[in-house]
UniProtKB/TrEMBL annotation:
This is Isocitrate lyase. It comes from Marinomonas rhizomae. GO terms for biological process: carboxylic acid metabolic process. It catalyses: D-threo-isocitrate = glyoxylate + succinate. Can also use Mn(2+) ion. The lineage of its organism: Bacteria, Pseudomonadati, Pseudomonadota, Gammaproteobacteria, Oceanospirillales.
Length: 533
């Protein structure tokens, strides 16, 4: 391990070797700048975080209590504040990641303005957000280390060697805010070459984990909306291969691929793949196609097509736009085939997009997958598109009804009502929501829990509350009471927003570069001194 002390000695030797021309260089200042910029490139980050994810996956395989979590972030500052908060409250970032949601990129980061989740946003906005997130996380490192350097300098000036050593130990033991990002590449934004090119950009920006879904790229829909169309397995596997090649080309050998299936809610296919041999993937995919058995050419009209499925000739059910319908109630079987096939062909983790957060439903599917692939693990969307309150109250209602308990005081279709808050049923439902991640990790193979777009909702909610108060009767008290006073009392570092934005880091750099003549922003007249945080 390179300690602060021996790194300073190395820097001193490098500077001394250059003679008088480098006399203005302070070795300790060099080391501080190096430590504040631990990762020189996005690839450095991707390699570092890929190893973390692999270790976490192995840890989960040993004990499902070791599941991981993330929240979706639409801006670098949001991701930064999340990780600063995690370090403050829990002491470590271990097992906590960031999630980059294609939904939020479309809704909040496109030059077209707000867009639906249909892959209409600029593909370059995805790697740009990855780079932005890591820029803010690296700045969080620099800021926290700058405070530790100041703590050490103050101890030196006071002649307090014990305190100085303690500060130096904190610097040596410093844990970075840089964590894995699970990054959404949607359906690949085009053909497999387009997927490869975008995956490269994402990896170069720092992504160690790329999530790709089996929808048709040019008609991609949000997983919680209707009209989803899936691709044959051969097409999806080509894109998984494209992502893996991108990882390997860039030297991120343990990069992670999440294969997402939307088949549970997708009833259509755009292509009918060509079967080469009996029982191959194409034939298995086509077996799910809905259609009318053809026993006579009289059944065929102009433009109709027919395919042979086993010993039967089928006229597929086609919509006016040419899309082909799957048989009803085959979604779960298609999901199982999708997942097994993806894991057998290079994917590392699975994502099954469900219509509700029901552990029994998820576990039933995962158990079927694990019959073939015992180490199958899920990334699961704890989606804001679910009405969690209503879903879990109805789950409790149904369970109690099945157990023969008296539910006469509850109306199932009205369980969302505030009238039920505080009832025994509502409390039981809340407890199930509280333990959902732990229980689903243990019972349903979920390695990673994420919420895709929580900070979209928190931004809207906090802004609504501030606007209501500030522009209403409370005026400035609306901001002071509900924002600033809480920031101070909860110890939020961003109450000193100048420091958070890098002002003190800049002062240090000016002093390194200009010495005593540096014009610094800090000092007695800086109003940030009013804050104790």
């Amino acid at each position: 391990m390179h300690t602060y002390k021996n790194k300073t000695q190395q820097a001193s030797q490098t500077i001394d070797s250059q003679g008088p021309a480098w006399a203005a260089m302070n070795p300790e200042s060099v080391v501080r700048m190096q430590l504040q910029n631990r990762f020189n490139t996005g690839l450095d980050i991707a390699k570092y975080t890929a190893q973390i994810m692999r270790e976490d996956m192995a840890s989960y395989d040993k004990d499902p209590a070791n599941y991981t979590q993330s929240l979706g972030c639409w801006h670098g500052f949001i991701g930064q504040q999340k990780m600063i908060s995690i370090k403050k409250h829990f002491g470590t970032t271990r097992s906590r990641y960031l999630y980059l949601s294609g939904w939020m990129v479309a809704a909040m980061r496109s030059e077209f303005g707000p867009l639906p989740d249909q892959s209409m946003h600029e593909k370059t906005s995805v790697p740009a957000l990855i780079e932005e997130l890591y820029t803010f996380l690296k700045q969080a490192d620099a800021r926290e280390l700058q405070h530790l350097f100041k703590e050490m300098d103050e101890a030196r000036e006071a002649g307090d060697q014990v305190r100085e050593q303690a500060a130096q130990q904190k610097i040596d033991d410093f844990e970075t805010h840089v964590v894995p990002i699970i990054a959404d590449i949607d359906a690949g934004f085009g053909n497999e070459e387009a997927t490869y090119l975008l995956a490269k950009k994402m990896i170069e920006a720092g992504a160690c984990c790329i999530q790709i879904e089996n929808q048709v790229s040019d008609v991609k829909q949000c997983g919680h909306q209707d009209g989803k169309v899936t691709v044959p397995h051969e097409d999806f596997l080509a894109k998984i291969n494209a992502v893996r090649y991108a990882f390997l080309e860039l030297g991120v050998d343990d990069g992670v691929i999440v294969a997402r299936t939307d088949s549970l809610g997708a009833g259509l296919t755009q292509k009918i793949p060509v079967s080469q041999t009996a029982g191959d993937l194409a034939e298995q995919y086509n077996a799910f196609i809905d259609g009318e058995e053809v026993t006579s050419l009289e059944q065929m009209k102009s433009g109709d097509m027919a395919i042979k499925l086993g010993e039967r000739l089928i006229k597929p059910t086609r919509l006016a736009n040419g899309l082909v319908r799957f048989k009803p109630n085959t979604g779960e079987d298609r999901v199982v085939l999708d997942c097994i096939t993806s894991l057998q062909n290079g994917a590392d983790l699975l994502w099954i997009e469900t219509e509700k957060p029901h552990i029994g439903q998820i576990a039933a599917i995962v158990n079927r997958i694990r019959d073939v692939m015992p180490n199958a693990k899920l990334v699961y969307n704890n989606s804001p598109s679910f009405n969690w309150t209503l879903n879990f109250r109805q789950q409790v209602f149904d369970a109690w009804l099945e157990e023969g308990k008296d539910v006469s005081q509850y109306q199932r279709e009205k369980l969302m009502s505030q009238d039920y808050d505080g009832s025994v049923l509502a409390d039981e439902a809340d407890e199930r929501i509280r333990s959902f991640q732990k229980d689903a990790a243990a019972q349903a193979g979920i390695f990673h829990h994420l919420i895709t777009l929580p900070t979209y909702h928190t931004a809207a909610l906090s802004t609504d509350n501030l606007a209501k108060d500030y522009f209403g009767e409370l005026g400035m008290l609306g901001y002071v009471r509900e924002v600033q006073r809480k920031e101070i009392r909860q110890g939020l570092a961003c109450v000193k927003h100048q420091d958070m934005s890098g002002s003190n880091i800049g002062d240090d750099h000016k002093e390194y570069f200009s010495g005593e003549q540096a014009l610094k922003a800090s000092g007695k007249d800086n109003t940030m001194n009013q804050f104790a945080v």
